[in-house]
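Practice set, problem 2.
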Amino acid sequence: MVCVTGTLVLAGTPIGDTADAPPRLAAELEGADIVAAEDTRRLRRLTQALGVQTRGRVVSYFEGNEAARTPELVEALAGGARVLLVTDAGMPSVSDPGYRLVAAAVEKDIKVTAVPGPSAVLTALALSGLPVDRFCFEGFLPRKAGERLSRLREVAAERRTLVYFEAPHRLDDTLTAMAEVFGPMRRAAVCRELTKTYEEVKRGGLGELAAWAAEGVRGEITVVVEGAPESGPADLDAAELVRRVQVREEAGERRKEAIAAVATEAGLPKREVFDAVVAAKNAARTVPADGKGLS
C-alpha cells in the first residue's frame, strides 16, 4: 500500500511593493488546505492587495509558537494536506520561521517545494556595488555588545562579502562595532526600505556609515559589507596590527591568544605582532597628555 503524503510549500512574499508578488503565490493562497502565516493580519492585507481569498484554514506560525505548532502541521502533511507557509516578507526560513517545519517534513519524507519570490538578501547584495560572486549571509547579530563583537571577530578575516539584517535602532551600534573590528575604511552598503517608496542605499566606509547612522535611521535594514582583503606582511602596518589585537582583547580574548590570532590572519610571525603591541604600549607610557615627547 502506497502512503500518499501532502506537500509543504514555502512561498516568498513581497519585501515591499506588493506588485513584486510571484504569480504563483495567488494560486497557492487560494488552493492550499492550510496557510501558515507569520502574521495573519499581514496575510489578510496581502490577500486583499492580490485580490484573492484563502479557502483553506489559516493558522499563525511565528517564533513564539512554531515549536508547538510544527507537529500539528506535520501531522496534516502526513495526512495529505497541502500546507502553504508564508512570512511577513521574503522567503520563509531565512531569518524567519520555517526551518523547524522544513526539517520535520524532510525527516518524514514529505515533499517540500517553493514558490520563489523576493529576497532582501539578494536584492541588497545586487544593489550594494560590492562583489557578488561569493557571499555569506550572517542574519542578525547578537544584541549584547560583547557578543556582537565576538561574532564580528569570528568573520574579521572572511574574504567573502557579508550580508546582515539589523533593526534600525541598533544600526548605529552595529556599524560602529563593524568599523572597530573590520576597520573604518572597509566598504559597505546600508540598504533601507528595499522596493518601498523611500528606498535608500547608502554606500561608503564603515566609519562614514556609522557617523551617518548616528543621526537616526528608520525602516527595514540590510547591511552588506565588503570581504576582508588579501592581507600579508606588506599590507598591515604596526598600528593596524595593534588595533586588531585591541579589538580581540576588548571582546574578551587574552592578549596571548589575540596576538596569535592576528599573526595567523596577517601571515606574520607572532613575535612581530607581539613587538608591535609592546612598542605601542611603551609609546603610550612615554608620551604625555600634551603630545610632546619627554626630554
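Problem 2, part (b): a different protein.
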Amino acid sequence: MSDSPAGRLQALFEGHRLTPTQRRIAHCMVRRAGDVPFLSSVELAELAGVSQPSVTRFAVALGFDGYPALRRHLREVAPPEADAGSGAGGGEAFNEYQQAVLAEIENLRHLAGLLADPGPVERAGRLLARSRPLPVLGLRAASSQARGFAYFAAKVHPDVRLLDEGGSMLTDRVDAAVRAGATALLCFALPRHPREVVEALEYARAAGLAVVTVADSAFAPVAAHSDLLIPAAVGTGLAFDTACAPMMLGRVLLEAMADELPDAQARLEEFDTKAAARGLFVE
C-alpha cells in the first residue's frame, strides 16, 4: 500500500471485520481522506449516507473510545495536506479500487508462501480422492466456491455431491453421503460464517467424516470442527469480501486430488472427446 492518506486509512481498516454499513463509512473516508480528520461525526454520517450512531459504532469497532478519539488519530495518520488517491507525484498514490486489487495480490502472495510446504495440500488431496462419494459444502458467501470446486471435481472424481443449501435437509444429505460410503467432506467457509456451517461440520465429524476446510483464517469458527484446515485470506477492502485466494486454493486442491486419482486423465480425455462430438463448445 502507498504512503498516501488514503493508503494509511486503508491500513487502519485492514484486519477489522466490518459490517456493510461500516465498510460504507470506511470507503467514504478513503475517498475523502484529506477532509475526514476535520469532519464531525454528523458530517461524516451525511457524506456516507448513514446515521450518526453508525459512525460512533464504527469508531468503536476500530478500537477507539468513540469518534473524537478516532478523529484525533486520523489527524496523525492522514494529514490533509496530501491529496488522497490523486495519483500525483509519479503515480505513487492508489485509489480504493486499486488498493483492493493490491490487497488481493498480497493475499495470493501469502498463499504462495504457505504452499511452499505442499504437505497439507497433498494430504487433503488424498483424503478427497479416497472419499466415494465426496460431499462439498459451502453456504451463503462460500456457495460459489463450493459450486466451482464441485463442477470441476466432477470431471475427474466419480461421485461429487454439492451441499450448497442449508436448512433441515443438510444433515440428511450428510447422512446420505455417509451411508453411501463417504469418508471425507470438503468445506469452504468464508465470512460471515453461518452458524449452520459450524453445526454441519460438527455433525459430519461425529458421523465419522474427515473434514477438510478452506477458511479465511486458521482461527475461523470452523477450525475446531476441522481435521485439516488450510487458510486463504479474503480481501476486505470493498463493500463485499473478495475471495481470489480461496478460489485459487480450491483449484490447487483440485490438482492435488486429481494427482491421486489414477483415471483422472482418462476421464478428462473422455469428456473432451464427447464434448467435441456434441459440439459443446464454440471454437
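Answer key, part (b): Strands lie at 134-137, 160-163, 184-189, 210-215, 228-231. Residues 96-114 form the longest helix (19 residues).
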